[in-house]
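4.2 Preliminary Data

To establish feasibility before requesting continued support, the project team ran the inverse folding procedure on a target of 179 residues. The structure was first converted into the token representation described in Section 3, and no sequence information of any kind was made available to the design step. The complete token record follows.
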């Protein structure tokens, strides 16, 4: 049975590979340097899976000592996203499974942060919180557009020595509809 695009994307290792390739073009060796905790065989297997699912693409092949080194990229960033239309088509138990995988990926990133010898929540900007807000549909639409604008200002930033990758997860769960 062929694995769905959703399952391909939400695998913890593949999710990390995708995150590394956002706005970047990297070889498998460069990915290995960015993800040193992932065994090489596992990294290559998951790169292959992402390429077969057409989530990442080989954009260049560089001859290197008798072999070909492939450079990977996400050519269509929307291909690495799972939209509400696709989630709507899934049964309730699969929707819950997706949410659990999403949470597991966030938990894995937080655990990696905690494994550091030197960490400072305040200086590093680590935060997590939950808030309930009351909005009309129109106010919610405006709020969501403001979030998109805020993300769009920084989503295309390229890595540099001054920049540190930060993961921002958003979850919006509405209350039950009033009858």
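Position-by-position output of the design step:
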């Amino acid at each position: 049975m062929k694995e769905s695009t959703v399952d391909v994307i939400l695998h913890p290792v593949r999710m990390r590979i995708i995150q590394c390739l956002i706005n970047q073009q990297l070889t498998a060796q460069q990915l290995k340097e960015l993800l040193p905790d992932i065994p090489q065989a596992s990294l290559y297997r998951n790169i292959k899976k992402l390429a077969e699912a057409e989530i990442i693409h080989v954009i260049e092949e560089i001859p290197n000592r008798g072999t070909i080194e492939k450079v990977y990229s996400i050519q269509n960033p929307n291909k690495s996203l799972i939209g509400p239309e696709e989630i709507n088509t899934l049964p309730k138990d699969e929707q819950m499974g997706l949410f659990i995988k999403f949470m597991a990926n966030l938990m894995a990133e937080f655990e990696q942060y905690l494994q550091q010898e030197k960490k400072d929540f305040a200086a590093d900007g680590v935060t997590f919180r939950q808030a309930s807000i009351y909005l009309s549909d129109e106010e919610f639409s405006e709020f969501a557009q403001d979030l998109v604008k805020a993300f769009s200002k920084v989503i295309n930033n390229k890595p540099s020595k001054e920049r540190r990758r930060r993961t921002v997860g958003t979850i919006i769960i509405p209350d039950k509809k009033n009858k």
